[in-house]
């Protein structure tokens, strides 16, 4: 852990000025994400029944504010640079540091393992194969539910 922090400090010292500005924008994004105000916004948007969720708050409120506060234009290129900066600095971007994304081992045509899934409508757990018509082909899409 100490070596990771020392490496992060060395990397920061050698950054070009533009990269330092985006690192500051990233640090500001972290502050905003962790603020009481935006924690309440995350909670509210998840409960309001709309199609919006916490990621919309990040994209439409937090990131634009972080960029604007550092006199950066809110546009696609700067948003991508902010995301790239997060990927390059997991010591700052906790959502990158703690990401457990994995490509997995399933391939097209593999037999689907009988995994437990959660049914949000009934608040129950069930095995996925009990819900499928096994005589048909199925497409499995997986993602995060936050």
Topology, element by element:
Layout: H1 2-13, H2 17-34, H3 36-47, H4 54-69, H5 76-88, H6 94-97, E1 116-119, E2 124-127
Antiparallel strand pairs: 1-2
Helix pairs in contact: 2-4, 2-5, 3-4
Brief rundown of the structure:
The protein is mainly alpha-helical and 146 residues long. The protein is 51% helix and 5% strand. The model has no long low-confidence stretch (mean pLDDT 83).
Question: Could you characterize what this model shows?
Answer:
The chain is mostly helical. The protein has a domain of 96 residues. 51% of the residues lie in helices and 5% in strands. It has six helices and two strands; from the N terminus they run ααααααββ. A two-stranded antiparallel ribbon has the order 1-2. Strand 1 and strand 2 form a beta hairpin. Helix 2 packs across helix 4, helix 2 packs across helix 5 and helix 3 packs antiparallel against helix 4. The longest helix has 18 residues. The two termini are 28 Å apart. The relative contact order is 0.10. The model has no long low-confidence stretch (mean pLDDT 83).
Instruction: State the strand order across the main sheet.
Output: 1-2
H/E series, N to C? HHHHHHEE
The global form is elongated
The span between the termini is 28 Å
Strand content of the residues, in percent? Answer: 5-15%
Largest β-sheet summary: 2 strands, antiparallel
The averaged pLDDT comes out at 83
Structure annotation, total helices:
6
The computed structural class is: mainly alpha
Whole-number radius of gyration? Answer: 20 Å
In total, how many beta strands?
2
Instruction: Show unreliable segments.
Output: none
């Amino acid at each position: 852990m100490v070596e990771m922090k020392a490496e992060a400090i060395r990397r920061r010292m050698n950054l070009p000025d533009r990269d330092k500005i985006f690192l500051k924008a990233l640090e500001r994004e972290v502050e905003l994400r962790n603020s009481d105000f935006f924690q309440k916004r995350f909670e509210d948007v998840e409960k309001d029944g709309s199609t919006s969720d916490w990621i919309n708050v990040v994209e439409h409120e937090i990131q634009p504010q972080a960029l604007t506060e550092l006199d950066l234009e809110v546009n696609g290129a700067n948003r991508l640079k902010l995301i790239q900066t997060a990927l390059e600095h997991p010591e700052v971007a906790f959502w990158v540091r703690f990401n457990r994304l994995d490509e997995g081992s399933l391939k097209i045509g593999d037999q689907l393992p009988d995994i437990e899934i959660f049914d949000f409508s009934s608040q129950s757990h069930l095995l996925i194969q009990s819900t499928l018509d096994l005589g048909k082909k199925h497409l499995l899409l997986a993602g995060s539910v936050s």
